[in-house]
Amino acid sequence: MGAPGSGVNWGDWKHFTGYAHVIMSFLPESVSNFAALIATMAEIIFGVCLILGFKIKANAFGSAVLTLLFAVSMIISEGILAPFKYPVFVFAGAALLLTFTEDPKWSIDSVLKDK
Q1: pLDDT tens, 11-28?
Q2: Domain residues of the chain, as ranges?
Q3: pLDDT for res 40
Q4: How many Å apart are CA 96 and CA 52, to the nearest integer?
Q5: Percent helix, strand, coil in the chain (nearest 5)?
Q6: Residue of 46, 50, 40 lying closest to 109 (CA atoms)
């Protein structure tokens, strides 16, 4: 990842929340700081659940919604081309695609469904 300014927009929590405020410039700073915390917690929960194969469809849908909210925030704050600097729509599309697939047989969901 690297230090702030070395190819990334953040590197620690202070710089991350500063970048979050840039992306959510339409919100007061206290609200954008809270949204950054909630988004980070959601990303961790969605990621761990997807890796474990637990509630795949719900977590994939949540990931897609969160990613699309990020894209919309980027568009509002930085312009229509901003999300195309990163594969934001690819991530959202992949997450949406995952919501329509069958549960892998080695997932927790598959094990729970068989019982």
Answers
A1: 778 888 888 899 999 999
A2: 13-102
A3: 94
A4: 18
A5: 70, 0, 30
A6: 50
Encoded tokens for 74: 């980027």
> How many angstroms separate the Cα of 82 from the Cα of each of 3, 72, 79, 87?
22, 10, 6, 10
Place of tokens 């840039």: 22
Number of residues assigned to the chain: 115
Full DSSP string of 71-97? HHHHHHHH-TTGGGGTTHHHHHHHHHH
| CA atoms of 110 and 108, how far apart (whole Å) | 5
Lookup result for tokens 């068989």: 114
Which residues on adjacent β-strands are paired with residue 8?
4
What residues are paired with 4 via a beta bridge? 8
pTM: 0.83
